[in-house]
């Protein structure tokens, strides 16, 4: 497939300009592919919400989901994933999660000055990766969260190519991060020689300039993996110092417990609001939906 003439970099452009344009086009393609992957999930959630609350059309369901995602500061894609994966509410109950009480959020010592009950999820994830890279002086890293529908999904990254990000958008098997998630312990991998790394993953990681990968799982208080962050280092068997390894483990523990709290509190609050407003709208005329009758 050829690039459109109006988007393709000119042949007589300087090499750095052509490379910058190619990188921009690759980002656009990756974003479009991400939307293509996300659209079926959101459409499935729309169908569930429309059917559950007898809304007049899919747009009404989308508007309701979007309003709840914005109010509770959760991504629409994450809310849609929860709608699809969480057991449906009991029609006999007024609440989706009766008897639930909000939990106290864990302290985030690596984010001083931020209230753990107010900080944005994206801010937490960005800071985890940023501080991990800064403390270890690594120039490349990525962070994935555990999605109940697809597994480890790329959420944050730094210093990695568009090809790398597209290849590892969702991680299954054959990578250090998937092994860290399964083992629920930190994994160090010499990418060139590690037999547990699949050949396609090995080729892609080596092409990015990473020879040693340190993958650190983020665990909930009860020990299940909620995410993984990985540091990519250029030299063979490049280890972390004891102080660096201890700091990475401590940050991963705090972040994992906070992410689990966020999923069990903030996300469930968003679902509860969705159920509350959806129940109020059940069977309402289309004009009321348009006018925002749910409040």
Descriptive account of the structure:
- This protein is of the alpha+beta class.
- It folds into 2 domains: about 15-90 and about 265-290, no CATH class; about 120-260, Beta-Lactamase (2-Layer Sandwich).
- Helix content is about 50%, strand content about 15%.
- The chain has 10 helices and 6 strands.
- It has a 6-stranded antiparallel sheet with strand order 3-2-1-6-5-4, sandwiched between helices.
- Helix 2 (about 60-70) runs antiparallel to helix 9.
- The longest helix is centred in the N-terminal third of the chain and has 38 residues, at about 15-50.
- The termini are far apart.
- Residues about 1-5 and about 285-295 have low confidence and may be disordered.
Q: Report low-confidence residues grouped into runs of 5 or more.
A: 1-6, 286-295
Q: Rg from C-alpha positions?
A: 22 Å
Proportion of beta-strand residues:
5-15%
What's the CATH C level of the largest domain? Alpha Beta
DSSP summary: helix tally: 10
Lateral arrangement of strands in the main beta sheet: 3-2-1-6-5-4
- Number of folding domains? 2
Distance between the termini: 48 Å
The geometry reads as globular
Tell me the CATH architecture of the largest domain: 2-Layer Sandwich
List keywords for this structure.
single chain, 295 residues, alpha+beta, Beta-Lactamase, 2 domains, six-stranded antiparallel beta sheet, 13% strand, globular, disordered N terminus
């Amino acid at each position: 497939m050829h690039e459109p003439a109006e988007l393709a970099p000119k042949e007589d452009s300087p090499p750095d300009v052509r490379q910058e344009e190619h990188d921009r086009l690759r980002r656009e393609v990756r974003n479009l592919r991400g939307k293509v992957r996300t659209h079926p999930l959101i459409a499935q959630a729309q169908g569930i919400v429309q059917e559950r609350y007898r809304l007049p059309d899919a747009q009404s369901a989308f508007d309701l989901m979007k309003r709840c995602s914005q109010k509770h500061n959760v991504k629409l894609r994450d809310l849609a994933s929860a709608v699809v994966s969480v057991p449906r509410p009991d029609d006999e109950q007024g609440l989706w999660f009766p008897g639930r009480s909000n939990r106290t959020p864990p302290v985030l010592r690596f984010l001083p000055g931020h209230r753990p009950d107010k900080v944005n999820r994206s801010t937490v994830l960005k800071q985890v990766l940023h501080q991990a890279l800064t403390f270890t002086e690594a120039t490349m890293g990525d962070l994935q969260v555990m999605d109940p529908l697809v597994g480890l999904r790329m959420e944050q990254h730094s210093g990695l190519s568009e090809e790398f990000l597209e290849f590892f958008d969702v991680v299954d098997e054959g990578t250090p991060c998937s092994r860290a998630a399964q083992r629920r312990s930190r994994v160090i991998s010499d990418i060139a020689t590690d037999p547990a790394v699949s050949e396609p993953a090995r080729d892609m990681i080596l092409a990015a300039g990473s020879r040693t990968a340190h993958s650190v799982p983020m665990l909930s208080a009860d020990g299940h993996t909620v995410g993984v962050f990985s540091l990519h280092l250029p030299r063979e068997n490049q280890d972390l110092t004891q102080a660096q390894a201890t700091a990475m483990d401590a940050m991963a523990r705090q972040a994992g417990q906070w992410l689990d709290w966020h999923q069990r509190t903030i996300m469930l609050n968003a679902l509860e609001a969705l159920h509350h407003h959806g129940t109020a709208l059940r069977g309402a005329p289309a004009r009321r939906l348009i006018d925002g009758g749910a409040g």
